[in-house]
Amino acid sequence: MWEETKEITEIVLRAARKASQEPISQSEQALPGKAIHWPVECAIGPGLEGAIACESKVGYVNGLQGQLVYRGYDIFELCAYSCFEETCYLLLHGRLPTSSQFGSFRKQLAEYRHVPKTLRLLMSFPVEGMNAMGALRMGTNLMRQEFTFGDLEIAKPDIAQAHESDEDTISSEADPGDKAESFYSFDTTNTVVLTSMEETIAVSGSRKPAKGIRHQEVLQDTSSLDSCCHLIAGAPTLTAAIARIRNGQMPIEPDPELSHAANYLYMMTGRRPTEIEERIMDIALILHADHGMNASTFAAMVVASTLSDIYFSVGAGIAALAGPLHGGANEQVIHMLRQIGGPSNAKEWYAKARARKEKIMGFGHRVYKAYDPRASVLGPLARHLALENKEAQVLFRTAEALEKEVIADLGQSKSIYPNVDFYSGIVYSCLGIPTDMFTPTFAVSRVAGWCARVLEYLKKNRIFRPRAIYTGRLGEKYIPIDARHSAGKPSKR
Ligand code: ACO
């Protein structure tokens, strides 16, 4: 698949060999093919550490061995030989595609890249001043309207067909107690019938057939495989558009001839990437696609478990990913490296940061107690890209120097090593992605994992509903406001 970029394959394979030589402590449990008997016994720490929320065949993280597996395939293997589209198919369907399945899947993704209505809606918001992850979250929500039955304008009753109306009920701002909108009553036989895979929506009753839904099945099920493809394909279009709008530029139309990775970079930068850039972007997408029950995946699954839908779930995933303790760390790392200023400053900077008890961005992980395999690949890729980029060269050498300091101090003692976010920012910036779009770029990839896990969970859905241990007071007596003297202080009992 990657004949022209063998040097990159070689970098990945070298990283795989190096990772396999790392000393291995005890192995974490995987139970392939075993029937699980619920309830499962586990010790749970704060932040649900150690909690087992569900069974999954999507992916596996062995934090003690530094191993990451999607559907049985080691991440190094996928980075060396697969591509992001194939990895998405694998995550969603549970197996690698045949060549005809792969062709249809790529075609579907290329078609779904076009989200013109969503972009038009998005551009009516002040995207240039918004948090980029906030804009992306809003964009994925607007995508519902582009694709689904329920939110389609066409599915709403046609006011012209109303039997009667009561325009006087329109609310006035001065009287918020009024009814919110005017009343219309309709002929109840005027139901909307949607015929999928056609360019026409046929409507029974008195409404005329309406045109305008092209190239896509009209869906009632907003948690379907097609909705997942829609989100996987549309997220890069939205992200690139958000980047450009924030930069005072117009969005660029997707190019269906390009791969997912190449098209993303093209829509973002306006330049078709070189084969090396495309390959490295593709690997970065594969590496970020799924990662166990991390915070954003769990957030997406919690939302899905209420039988909300995949668009809302992905929105929740994006919101959770935005935080600096999760996906937001990739942006913080670049700011930190710039602040350090150069490799010779790393030692002193680190000593001061430790003295202030600061957490070092891009290090540490709830699950990995070994080197994160994603950082094992992204580090050498960052080095490769930085060879011809002076600013990135300084950032990379600073990162290497900082890594040495952190590992010498916290590696053995606290099992703290670089995580996926430590080198990804250097890679992204060499590929022309602006710093404020690093975390949205993470989301562009992770949407595949969110979708795969939500689809899997919904097959045996049970609403998530953990408990908290109540440590507050009981038996308080209500005191009228005028009788409260020491505000905020607990009453004497
Ligand atoms: N720098 C310095 N010390 C650290 C770091 C770090 N980056 N991470 C953890 N530690 C220390 C903590 O201070 C704590 O020490 P203590 O036992 O003396 O109190 C110990 O290691 C355990 O740390 P916790 O914060 O309890 O670990 P937790 O599993 O809750 O957090 C997390 C994991 C959030 C990733 C944490 O390591 C962190 O904040 N890292 C920096 C932010 C970051 O890089 N996030 C991206 C993670 S990857 C991802 O989400 C895609």
Give structural notes.
The chain is built from 17 helices and 7 strands. The chain is mostly helical and 493 residues long. It has a domain at 330-430: Cytochrome P450-Terp, domain 2 (Cytochrome p450-Terp, domain 2), CATH 1.10.230.10. It has a 3-stranded antiparallel beta sheet. Strands 4-5 form a two-stranded antiparallel ribbon. Strands 6-7 form a two-stranded antiparallel ribbon. Strand 2 (67-70) and strand 3 (73-74) form a beta hairpin. Helix 12 packs across helix 16 (420-430). The model is unreliable at 188-220 (pLDDT under 50). The structure holds acetyl coenzyme *A. The site of acetyl coenzyme *A has 19 residues, from helix 15 and helix 16.
The class by helix and strand makeup works out as: mainly alpha
Share of residues in helices: 40-55%
Any idea what the radius of gyration is? Answer: 26 Å
* Overall 3D form: globular
| CATH domain topology of the domain at 330-430 | Cytochrome p450-Terp, domain 2
Order of helices and strands: HEEEHHHHHEEEEHHHHHHHHHHH
Q: Flag low-confidence runs.
A: 188-220
The neighbouring-strand order within the major sheet is: 1-2-3
Tally of helical segments: 17
CATH architecture of the domain at 330-430: Orthogonal Bundle
- Give the name of the CATH superfamily of the domain at 330-430: Cytochrome P450-Terp, domain 2
Q: What's the end-to-end separation, in Å?
A: 74 Å
Q: Tell me the major beta sheet.
A: 3 strands, antiparallel
